[in-house]
Amino acid sequence: MSIGGIGGIDSSRIQAMMEQLKAAATKPAAAPLAPAGLGNVGAKPAVEKLDFAEALKTSLQQVSDTQKAAQALGQRFAMGDDTVSLSDTMIAMQKSSIAFQGTVQVRNKLVSAYHDIMNMQV
């Protein structure tokens, strides 16, 4: 069922989560539509271009926010806050860990791609 006993996450669930993240990252943002009767009739809506640097910055900020939230929950639990349960704290920490591991894997792939490109003969 799961690796690591109760509450463990098996590799197939991690792989499925990574596939969802990849699908979400490649899906283009929807362009805003003008109300009926406005704008050029028959004109195609402008396609919003994705900025890699902005997408990377947003992803890193989300991972950082996840880590900060998990740390704050851990501190609140350690201080004896009755509104924070151990299970919520552990889940937040696992989510933070998975997000960080995913970020490290993306970084490794980017570094590998950079080295491959730099080693190409022109």
Give the SSE layout.
Elements (H helix, E strand, L loop, with lengths): L10 H16 L25 H27 L7 H33 L4
Helix pairs in contact: 2-3
Written description of the protein model:
The chain has 122 residues and is mainly α. The chain has a domain at 55-122. The chain contains three helices and no strands. Helix 2 (52-78) packs antiparallel against helix 3. The radius of gyration is 21 Å and the shape is elongated. Mean pLDDT is 80; it is low at 1-7.
Short key terms for the protein model shown above:
122 residues; elongated; mainly alpha; single chain
Question: Major beta sheet, specifics?
Answer: none
Order of H and E elements: HHH
Number of strands: 0
Q: Report the end-to-end length measured between terminal Cα atoms.
A: 50 Å
Low-confidence stretches: 1-7
Class of secondary structure makeup: mainly alpha
Q: For the residues shown, what is the average pLDDT?
A: 80
Count every helix, treating DSSP H or I runs of 4 or more residues as helices.
3
Structural shape: elongated
Helical fraction:
55-70%
Report the β-strand fraction as a percent range.
Answer: under 5%
Rg to the nearest angstrom?
21 Å
Main location: other
Pfam families: FliE
Protein name: Flagellar hook-basal body complex protein FliE
Keywords: Bacterial flagellum, Cell projection, Cilium, Flagellum
Structure in a nutshell:
With 122 residues, the chain is mainly α. The chain has helices spanning 11-26, 52-78, 86-118. It has a domain at 55-122.
